[in-house]
Amino acid sequence: MADLRVGAEIPPFVRTTDAANWNRYAAVNDEFVGIHMDDESGRAAGGTGAFGMGNMQWAYLHNMLRDWLDGRGRIVSASCRLRSMNTKGQTVTAGGRITGIRVVGAQTLVDLDIWTQDVVADRILAAGAATVALDDPVDGAHD
């Protein structure tokens, strides 16, 4: 965590999604729902075809935070609101930006804005916030 300061972006988590990704996710989560597997069902639900599971956006955000922490802390809280569908062939980037750093007792808490987006269309798919606790205190941490 070389760049631990307010305003710093954490390394992104990037995936290009398609029916194979959704099928694997559905198999693990028993979520074989027509709108995620069949273009006609997806169109009937308001999409341009089949579309990805909303919980996959959450999983990408979670993966991004865990990759960044790299075993040096834990996720205290995280939330997101889904804004747009993930469509086939879309490259989804999960990103985060530090909004606050504070020491509470013996732990350093880092607050972040988090999001997933389709970079090509410049569209946010999900947006939220997270707080992580670092294992090693950061001296002089402040907003």
From TrEMBL:
SUPFAM superfamilies: Thioesterase/thiol ester dehydrase-isomerase (SSF54637)
Protein name: MaoC-like domain-containing protein
Organism name: Nocardia jinanensis
